[in-house]
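I have been asked to look over a protein record a colleague put together. Alongside the sequence sits a line of tokens, each denoting a local backbone shape. Please read both lines and tell me whether the tokens look consistent with the sequence. Take the sequence as given and treat only the tokens as open to question. I have pasted the whole thing underneath without changing anything:
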Amino acid sequence: MKIKKQTQLLLLCLSSSGFLTEAAFAQEAPVEEAASTTPPQDEIAQEQTENKEATPIVVPDPDTTPEVSVTEEGDPLIPEEFISDPVVNRIELGLGYVSDDAYKFGRYNGLQSNGPYVLGDVNIRDYFEDGRFWTLRGTNLGLESRYLRLEGGKQGSYQLFFEYDELPNYKNNTVQSPFLGIGSDNLTLPPGFTSIDPITNNNIDAYLNSFELKTKRERIGAGARFIPRDRWQFDVDFSNESKEGIDATGAAIANGSTQVIGNTTTSLAPEVIDYETNKVNAKIQYAGDDGQVDLTYHMSIFENSYDALTWQDPFNTAAIGSMSLAPDNEFHQLSLNGGYTLPYSSRITGLFSMGRMTQNDNFMPYTVNNGLTTTPLPASSLDGEVWLTTAQLKLTSRPIRKLRLNAELRYHERDNRTPVNTYNYVILDSHSTANTVVDNNPYSYENNRFKLDANYRFNAITSLRGGYKYSEMKRSYVNAEREDTEEDTLYAKWKLKAHSTLDLTFKAETSQRDGSDYVPQGNENPAMKKYFLADRDRNTYGLMIDYMATEKLFLSARADYNKDEYSDSTLGLTEAEQPVYTVDFSYTPAHNITTYGYYTYEEIQSSQNGEVVAGSGWTAEFNDTFDTAGLGAKLTDLGKWEIGADLVYSKSSGAIQMTNLAAPGTETQYPDTRTELSSVKLWTTYNYSKRVSYKFGYWYEKYTADNWAIDGYQPYDPAVENILLLGNETLDYDVHVVTLSASYMYLYQYIDTLA
């Protein structure tokens, strides 16, 4: 039995955050051109933003500040970063209030519930005369999105840090399911529950249980840096991350003696999440006069507390299904990185790394259905092993004053050494044919890249940059639709400073991808080509204009256009285009007034052809549009007051139109999907004294969405036969947030003295 740890990893932000963790690679699914150097466990891509309002800096009386220590040369003994980037030590405490429960509003920030919450931010830095220092930084300390980092050490000698952060992910709180045992690996149906009748529905509403789809990450980390002598540096850090909660997964069973679509039932089932990831990084660095080199070791170990999920089929209560969950795995990598300065303003850098992923969890049985006849498993576990090798060489040079050259070579190999075995083919845990077997397919490839780039400045107002890129992918796994693909890319960027107040930039890029013969596999339509493997012509253009109209008014406009054409694809994606237009301004009518505004329009259009059987072809046109606009203003030096405002409005829509080629003129227009967001943020600060200020904030946000694929469906709807849903709706909200806080602040004392 696996032992669950308490501490873990996480990335946090004020409004959103992002991170990438490693995990299971149980089966060798060919995810194209994703040359990851870490096991793909769990990806969340959230941007980290912290919008903090500036606070007035008050320099204390020099007569009351201590004398600054100096080195033997007479220079102040202050860390370089303190001098170049002085900070205000600041402690903020307060209260906030959320007007309504709003799961989506609080998805990542922890403001999902109505009621009060605590505001708590801290940013303190201190430095001592002997070179020792410490810092403490914390944000959102009263919320589930809290972050805290304590750091200290001695300049030029050592540095230690401790870090803790959390990140919630509140997905939906309108879900329902008849399953019992939610939060465990065994889902059963309640007493008295009878198999769902596709026609009558059997009134399953009486057995529904409400629950929440949510996860939470916690990370604890620590590290150290040692500088034993000049030119040498040692770094080591450790982190432990846990992820717990409930997510949704598809659970399918083929009811019947044969596998046919009509006999397959599917349930959206609550999946228990209980992960732990441990990471270690260790680095040795040496810096010489002309060259630098470092050796790095990375380790990642992923553990899942649950091996499999088992469930009772709501459409046939006598049937039991089971499926494996993300398996335990490890990743180890050793990297050598270095650079050397050459004559003639040139420099060469290189990287070589080798990594090894392993996965050796015990196999589940072919089926939990004792009535099925299967052959013995060929092995007790996958014994999965994948080696990753990367080599990169880059040369930069400036042979003459006006010309800069860059050349880069990169080689990446994924060598999958997992043994190939023959397995009995069990269809959705309900049907087995002893004579039907399948082999696992270890996915291996090589990727070679080359880039040559030149930048030439003709004069003070004009420059031209251009280059060539080449990429080659060689796939060496069985039944690859296309063994080799190659892509050539040419690009250019022209910059013109037409006037002291006007800058123009134009860029263009064209690329072409082709390769070896495309060979459809299995039951694939011979005319079908997967878009990431198909021949493709891509053209991209961009124009940017920056105009300083006056000393107070700055204007900017940008237009980008991208088009992909799959001229050799009869079925599948045939073309896609994406125009993006942006305008923005900043206006400072007075020294204490700053305003800004922006507007962005983006459109994504694509066309796709399909065919179920010969003569039943169809085409689909997709059109998605996005509008985003914002305005903001800030007023300072209003006596002891400061005022600010930010307004944001965005909307999106998606349309799908399908045409039946077998019946010309027959078109199906799907309902549009739509989202709309309005946000208003107002704040005012009262500077009570040189060190104490009070801040009042108001935040209003409204979000609405229409999604025909989700809205209006109960957990079971006879219109969606043989599928049990969760009954979740899109989460509209209309939320007001008010905050009141007090801040105590002071400048770093030694910088105060220098000032």
